[in-house]
Amino acid sequence: MYEDFREDGNWKRYFSGLVALSIxxxxxxxxxWLNTKAILVQRRVSExxxxxxxxxxxxxxxxxxxxxxxxxxALMQRLKELNEQTKHTGEPPLEPLGKDQIILxxxxxxxxxx
Length: 114
Prior knowledge:
Helix content: over 70%
């Protein structure tokens, strides 16, 4: 049986078939592995984009709160509250600033994004 296999040259055909099948199996494995890695990378990119959107929304909320807290009306209200507190301690009241003395800076300048 083994003598026939060596003598008529079938071993070359079987060996070349085995090599071809090994190459095809390796390529299929590589394709599946790369596909899996690509899916994982896409998932991570989506997670990062979602986190970025959440942080942008939070930043907008914080910017709104800062603008509201530093508005002239809010500052005048805080001045009134401080003057009410100073009445009990005997300190002189604080003088409100005039609207021409208040300089409002745009948000981009405050963040250094000019």
